[in-house]
Structures are given as C-alpha cells and as structure tokens.
Amino acid sequence: MTLKMRKANLSDLDWFTKLTSYYTTDNFVGIVALLDDGARGGMMGMDFWTPKSVQLHIALNTMEALPDLWRETVSFLRSKGRNLVYCVTPSDHLPSIGLQRAAGFRETYRLVDGWDHGVDMVLSERRI
C-alpha cells in the first residue's frame, strides 16, 4: 500500500472531531494519510504547541496507515524544533492507551477522577 500525506483541511477537521470528540483550537495542525483509493487512512493532529512540545491526537480508519503517518508526523515535528509529544487520555479509553504504549509512550502522570467520576486523566509522553 502506498500512502499519500497531506495537510488536513476543514473537511478533515470535521471528520476528526466526529471520530474523536476532540474540538481543535486555532493552532491545530493535522496530517492526513490517504489510501490508494483516496480515502482517509488516518490523521494525526497536533495542538497546544510550546517551544519544545505538542499535544498529539490520532484518528485511524486502518492500522495500516499508522507507521507512515507516525514517520511523517515525527519528521514534521522535528522540522519545527519539537522533541516531545504528549497525549491526554481518559483512563477508560483502553484502545488509545494500548496504542500509546505500543508506540513507545509512557505514562508520566495521572489525575485521579480528572476526566469524570471514576475515570482518571492519563498523561503520556514520548521523546522524539
């Protein structure tokens, strides 16, 4: 499979929000992986930029898009001088937490009941 990468457009942002329930800020930047048929394979979104880090969000239609999308995102972030990515995830969103662990993220902080009663807010990070 050959994937094409491009910057997210408004249609992508709508799709991303519907899939993730994440509402982007004006500083949000997304990279979209397009499959051979032109469909979205996935998207990585970056928000809450600091001089050296950025918060990462992901939406996938297929896991096959993940390796190329991750490489493209890391390359983009390095070109912008960022060397730390982090995720903020509800503790009951186990697929996302599992994906983060598989991608080399490590949990660095947990706010007990930070998302909801009985649901912690998990902060995970990865140096790139």
What structural keywords apply?
128 residues; alpha+beta; Aminopeptidase; 3 helices; 7 strands
Low-confidence runs of at least 5 consecutive residues: none
Termini separation comes to 26 Å
Tell me the strand order in the biggest sheet. 1-2-3-4-5-7-6
Based on DSSP secondary structure assignment, what is the total number of beta strands? Answer: 7
- What fold name goes in the CATH topology slot of the largest domain? Aminopeptidase
Main sheet specs: 7 strands, mixed
Structural class: alpha+beta
The CATH H-level superfamily of the largest domain is Gcn5-related N-acetyltransferase (GNAT)
Bin the helical content. 25-40%
CATH architectural arrangement of the largest domain: 3-Layer(aba) Sandwich
